[in-house]
Design brief:
By secondary structure, the protein is of the alpha/beta class. It contains 22 helices and 30 strands. Helix 3 packs across helix 4 (39-50) and helix 9 crosses helix 10 (201-208). The structure holds 5'-O-[(S)-ethoxy(hydroxy)phosphoryl]adenosine. 5'-O-[(S)-ethoxy(hydroxy)phosphoryl]adenosine (WTA) binds at residues 270, 316-318, 393-396, 418-423, 444, 507-509, 521, 524, 530, 535. 5'-O-[(S)-ethoxy(hydroxy)phosphoryl]adenosine binds next to helix 13, strand 20, strand 24 and strand 25.
């Protein structure tokens, strides 16, 4: 690893933006100095420029009760008004907000005026179902316009959404609904994926059913169901309501009420180092300021001519900030696509870029690597000349993929912005500015104007250029998480206690600064894996494995994978009675399927190895580092702290 990093840090290639790009760009190099001179004044300026406040704020930041921040605290605004009505009032009602394309090829273009009407109708329906200020609404939908409409309708009422990725299982949905105490679930019969309808409603029925245990009171009163897949669904009278029976009939008159800037906007669950997902809480004002700011400057947005496409699902934070909130706050036109990149043919994404003239394209390294594998002849069949900015997010992008992206998708000219951020940061934190920065393949480079990050050693000291350590955020930022839903202690412990004396936020990522002071992200330093840009917890998958009756013990590691970045590899000890009665192949496939059902298909292990023992220290801690060596086919590292030093050779033999 470290020789690979040294090699990366020697990266000599630099790609400054072309003079033509600089000439048309809105990016302004003086932003860095202005922000550094007075950070709070800078954010105050952004907040006033980018958003419409119903009541202006008088104070930018209140950090007196750190780490619980308040931004723009006495200001008031309505998020949906900022994303919709004001664009119509400004005369842009006819501008397309969303070009939506379904996987089977059906499509819809929705203007800002139409989207505003739809959200108003939906808000009226939700209000009629008793949803009001502070209530939680779970959204479990495919990538259809109703997903965005639902999010905006919820926040229009001052309520809080919790979007659950449609690929998550009934169990995952259930725990998220319960943790947030959701009153309403918005779902669909099904959505299109890989050429067929994949049902969603059964998972909701299952998540809400069977509540006989203690404390298992269902908080959900209604389920609002969008018809998309056309598949048969079970129906619970009195609880379930078809979207098409109520939304089109509802009034399109709805005046948005203003709420304080610190009113909660959403909860989004993400994997942590323990088995229980954390409900990351974001509030309205600061979050919307930074989503709009980053969407505008990181992508050099020209709202009247650009067509923006972020390929993330709304179930992830990237879909929240760069499908729903950033683009709509900025009045941009965007493309939204329901399906998978290779349905019905491997060039589907490129065909869509050609069809809609996409100018800004934002995706994940794992997607780029899988396109590299199928070959450049596929994108080369399409006209991609509209593209002028490329973005990357979710995991480190290796220089090889970076170069391929620039050359094959960006015609060798489009600047690439490698954007580092997290569910917790709410919006982009580290990234080049395409009209300013000379980019470097593989490096996310520099904090944005107004953001301050550093690389520190374990004691919080700056490591300085040329050295590695832990990524920290040294000053509060507007879109920062405000807490973990229902668990303020876990919030402090997870992010703030490590560098308590300095007040630094601990991001959980390793990083290095090169000689120019540019940042290189090195992956997670905790037990969190990154598979295809999605965060998964080793502990969560281990808990799922041991919950299977055949399993005695399990250890999970993230192993390097050429396509997905990391892959889930599990080592399990099977109970003797099961070993006697089942074939190893049968057990392995059962366990893979089990994890897929319990957590979701993205968590399904790539490999499951049945072993007799796991490597443990004398204090009983599993040494995952050694298992990772095995999973990646390397010679096993230092085993001297193991209780039984022979155990690794047994495991290596069993894996072979
Ligand atoms: C990783 C996704 C390197 C990182 C927005 C972080 C990255 C985690 C990058 C957050 C990047 C995200 N380069 N690593 N450009 N972007 N990561 O919460 O490990 O799903 O901590 O947010 O993804 O994942 P999350």
């Amino acid at each position: 690893m470290s020789s690979q990093i040294d090699h990366l840090l020697d990266e000599p290639r630099r790609f400054p933006p072309s003079p033509e790009f600089v000439a048309q760009s809105i990016d302004d190099p003086t932003m860095y100095d202005r922000a550094a001179a007075d950070r709070e004044a800078f954010w105050g300026e952004q907040a006033r420029e980018l958003l419409t406040w119903s009541k202006p704020f008088t104070k930018v930041l209140d950090w007196s009760n750190a780490p619980f921040a308040k931004w723009f605290d006495d200001g008031e605004l309505n998020v949906a008004y900022n994303c919709l009505d004001r664009h119509v009032e400004a005369g842009n009602g006819d501008r397309v907000a969303i070009h939506w394309e379904g996987e089977p090829g059906d499509s819809r273009s929705i203007t800002y005026a139409e989207l505003t009407d739809e959200v108003k109708r939906t808000a009226n329906v939700l209000a009629g179902l008793g949803v009001g200020h502070g209530d939680r609404v779970a959204i479990y939908l495919p990538m259809i316009p109703e997903a965005v409409i639902s999010m905006l309708a919820v926040t229009r009422l001052g309520a809080i959404h919790s979007v659950v990725f449609g690929g998550f299982s009934a169990d995952s949905l259930r725990s998220r609904i319960d943790d947030a105490g959701a009153k309403l679930v918005i779902t669909a019969d099904g959505g299109w994926r890989k050429g067929r309808v994949s049902a969603l409603k059964p998972a909701v029925d299952q998540a809400l059913g069977d509540r006989h245990g203690e404390g298992e009171q269902a908080t959900v009163e209604h389920v609002l169901v969008v018809k998309r897949g056309g598949n048969d669904v079970d129906w619970t009278e009195g609880r379930d309501i078809w979207w098409h029976d109520v939304v089109p009939q509802a009034s399109a008159e709805h005046e948005a009420q203003a709420f304080p800037a610190e009113n909660p906007l959403f909860i989004l669950y993400t994997s942590g180092t323990t088995g229980r997902p954390k409900g990351i809480l974001h509030t309205t004002g600061g979050y919307l300021v930074q989503s709009a700011y980053t969407h505008k400057y990181v992508f050099d947005l020209h709202p009247d001519t650009d067509v923006f496409w972020c390929t993330a699902d709304i179930g992830w934070v990237t879909g929240h900030s760069y499908v729903t909130y950033g683009p709509l706050a900025n009045g941009a036109t965007q493309l939204m696509y329901e399906g998978t990149p290779d349905s019905p043919h491997p060039g589907r994404w490129w065909e869509l870029i050609q069809k809609y003239g996409v100018t800004i394209f934002y995706t994940a390294p794992t997607a780029i690597r899988s396109f590299m594998k199928t070959g450049r002849h596929i994108p080369q069949q399409f006209d991609l000349s509209s593209i002028r900015v490329l973005g990357s997010v979710g995991e480190p992008i290796n220089p090889e993929a970076w170069m391929w992206y620039r050359e094959v998708i960006g015609a060798g000219t489009a600047p690439i912005v490698d954007t580092w951020w997290q569910t917790e940061t709410g919006a982009i934190m580290v990234s080049p500015l395409p009209g300013v920065t000379a980019t470097k393949p593989g490096s996310a480079q520099v904090p944005l104007p107004g953001i301050s990050v550093d690389v520190a050693d374990d004691d919080g000291n700056e490591v300085g250029n040329g050295k590695g350590g832990l990524l920290v955020i040294t000053r509060p930022w507007p879109a920062m998480l405000r807490g973990i839903w229902g668990d303020p202690e876990r919030f402090k412990e997870t992010y703030w206690n490590k560098f308590q004396d300095r007040g630094y936020y601990f991001a959980g990522d390793g990083a290095r600064l090169d000689e120019d002071g540019d940042l290189w992200l090195l992956g997670r330093v905790d037990d969190v894996m990154n598979v295809s840009g999605h965060r998964l917890s080793t502990t969560e998958i281990e808990s799922s494995l041991v919950a299977h009756e055949a399993t005695a013990e399990a250890a999970v590691v993230g192993a390097n994978d050429e396509t997905t970045g990391q892959a889930v590899v599990a080592f399990v000890i099977i109970k003797q009675s099961y070993l006697d009665q089942h074939s190893p192949e049968g057990l392995v496939s059962q366990l893979r399927a089990w994890v897929g059902e319990q957590i979701g298909p993205i968590a399904r292990p790539r490999d499951v190895y049945i072993v007799n023992e796991l490597p443990k220290t004398r204090s009983g801690k599993i040494m995952r580092r050694l298992l990772r060596d095995v999973a990646e086919g390397r010679e096993v590292g230092d085993t001297t702290t193991l209780a039984d030093t022979m155990v690794m050779s047994t495991i290596s033999d069993q894996v072979k």
